[in-house]
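Supplementary Text 2. Reproducibility record for the structural model of the 443-residue chain.

All settings were left at their defaults, and a single model was retained for analysis rather than an ensemble. We include the record here because the model underlies the residue-level annotations in Supplementary Table 4.
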Amino acid sequence: MQEILDAILAERFDDVGGLAVPDSYQAMTVHEDEAGMFEGIETRDKDPRKSLHLDTVPTPELGPGEAIVAVMASAINYNTVWTSIFEPVSTFGFLKRYGRESELAKRHDLPYHIVGSDLAGVVLKTGPGVNAWKPGDRVVAHCLSVELESPDGHSDTMMDPQQRIWGFETNFGGLAQLALVKSNQLMPKPDHLTWEEAASPGLVNSTAYRQLVSRNGADMKQGDTVLIWGASGGLGSYATQFALNGGATPICVVSSPEKAEICRAMGAELIIDRNAEGYKFWKDPQTQDPREWKRFGAKIRELTGGDDPDIVFEHPGRETFGASVYVARKGGTIVTCASTSGYMHEYDNRYLWMNLKRIVGSHFANYREAWEANRLIEKGLVHPTVSKVYPLADTGQAAYDVHQNAHQGKVGVLALAPEEGLGVTNPEKRAKYEAAINRFRGV
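Retained model, structure tokens:
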């Protein structure tokens, strides 16, 4: 492993293909025999630091159409939090179902799960049938894993019945020194970014692109008013940038003055601090308060000069969904994913049906959407939102931060990279965007 790292740090990328792939590597895992460790504990009190382990694991067999990547950096997403607290279900069920698909898929059915759905690194080895990538290529990966043996996925790969999220519904994820990916997950690493910066947008940037910009999502257009929940967070920070770049007007919902300042730094002007305003959309765990929906809607109209949102960018889920349906304009769109506050949504259907609103479900992105989202990063039109970076051994703490919402933007993780700030091969380009790249740092 040290020879691989030495070659990468010396930028001897052409030499990487001649180096042997190690028989084992270090990776962050959860263990199947610990899947019940948090039973009886409230969700918020479940601690990823107890369930995520730094283990030495054997390197998986490389199959056709696949690549092994030396991972320089990765990042934390909510799916790693869910995996680590075994909610809403243990991911070992996903791995077992995948393992039944084929002899090659059996590799994924293990008593440990290597987690992580982001990476930036260098291709070490490719399997048969891979022509677009070669050892030494600097890459990032999106997390869509598909088989494409069914006709259903050939107009939109997210519709493939064998669609899975790599590192969540498959094994051998990115929070590790090595990762196994399908070659059609790979995209070029933006050359002006460090390893940790390049790793961080992957899942959330692509998810926000499909959810807000793509015709498969809300199909945002110039002039739209877009309500964005958690606008300074991992997902919302990219939605805010897409809205601003696309000629829309974001209304950024945040939970503190510090988060409001981040949104202003991105260029947003209409901001609601939900804690300062004291919104309580639920009277108790079973009963919503429509008066609070109305008060929230009145605040939006006050900021916009009377406009209701054309699009509501939804991801908190249960806590906010009733309000989201209420405040969307007549004929408007509520586009939803994730449900980080709960999956069982409740809303008053009169406000949906009688006002001709639409609820659109959105999940990650197809390869084309992920490629376009990464291209915007490469062009310097959208920027990473890394606020803090941990070493691989401290992934549990990084996941805990995200679980407790004690973070801004994205939390990065160094895998093989020995320190932050490495991997930039176009410093002139970076200099143009330095302030925007760093605006989440240390917040």
